[in-house]
Structure formats: C-alpha cells, structure tokens
Amino acid sequence: MKEGIYIKLFICKTCGEEFLSEGNHASYCPICRAERQNNRSKIYNHKVLNNEDTRTIGSIDICQKCKQEYIVRSGTQKVCDNCRKKYNNKMKSRPNLKYRAKNYDCITLFMKKGEKEILQELAKSQNMSLNAFINQSIQEFKNKLK
User: Going by DSSP bridges, is the β-strand pair 18-21/60-62 parallel, antiparallel, or unpaired?
Assistant: First the structure.
C-alpha cells in the first residue's frame, strides 16, 4: 500500500453491498459504478444522435435554485456561482460548528480599538492564526504561574 493512502469500507447506494475504496466519498461498488457510467453514456449518445441539447462547457444554462442564467464551467454544475458559494458555506459551517461545540469552549475577548490589528501582525509574524497565537500566549502565561 502506498504511503498516505487509506482503504475504507463503504456500502453501495444501489445494491447495498460492502466494498473497499481508496476514495473519501465512494458511493457505489465497482460493478454498480460501471453500470451507472454505461447508462450515462447511453443517454448522452442518444441525445447526440437525436440532436437534443447537451450541455457543453461555456454554454449558458439556468440555475436550479435562483433561475438566473449562468455560464457552465463543469459538466456537473447545476447552479450559478452565487448559489454554489451559499451552499458550500453552509456545508462547511455545519460540521465546523458541531466539532467546535464538542471540543472547545468559547471566550469573547474585548480589546481597545487597534489592538486586534497589532495582535494579528504579531500572530502573522509567527506564522499563526490569531486564535492559535492567543491560545499559545495563554498557555505560556499558565506555565509561568506554575
């Protein structure tokens, strides 16, 4: 096995069989995946033969969420850039909120105007986020008290 590659166990959405994959989000076993690809190819070829619309990169399509026109940038794109950004931000924030609530306590810190920028520059000079910088400073202070 290559270093850094992990094989995980998944359950196929079509047939319910368990299968191993190196992917992070595998949904279909190799047999069902090949069958789905074959069906997609048949549908596409049918559209091409019958001169039906096939979406190509650079063509204009209608967003499924807001009904605005957008330029197609990938074959799987279904929504405009604005709706995609909204969706991605929601998807990122949900797991982060759950993780933070489970693993961290929250402290609200008030400081004089301009102090935050000074701390951000100090943190940046240490190649750290402001949060990591403040946490490290608190830890160093706690160590001095011991």
Answer: unpaired
